[in-house]
Amino acid sequence: MRLLEAYDVDVAGGHAVVVGRSPILGRPAAMMLLGHDATVAVCHSRTSDLAEHVACADIVVAAAGSPRLIRGEWVKPGAVVVDAGYNPGNVGDVDETSAARRARLLTPVPGGVGPVTIAVLFEQTVQAAYRSHRI
Description:
Blueprint: H1 2-6, E1 15-19, H2 26-35, E2 39-43, H3 50-55, E3 59-62, E4 80-83, H4 96-99, E5 105-106, H5 113-132
Parallel strand pairs: 1-2, 1-3, 3-4, 4-5
């Protein structure tokens, strides 16, 4: 959500597709998008019509743990693609080369979601320390 906010991506009223259903990434991402008034579909590697779901999405969050699962030709022109996958060989869950031709915004792998996640964790740790010491 921090990445989307930083790039002024308004999710309210948009159609988001989260590819991945893990309890530590896919499901929380879907809930956060819902909390910001997006319409959300949760898909996974066994979704039979995955390409059709992705093709309708204004926002795609790839978190399936499958290298290059999401193909560029599936991406709706102008969509925002958040690749939260990290696989051997420093590749994400999105075929970055082909998706970059269609997406308005695309997070890189490596160097996109991971560093932001670490920064937010540090921020929250510092905030918790301040609260625990009543500073």
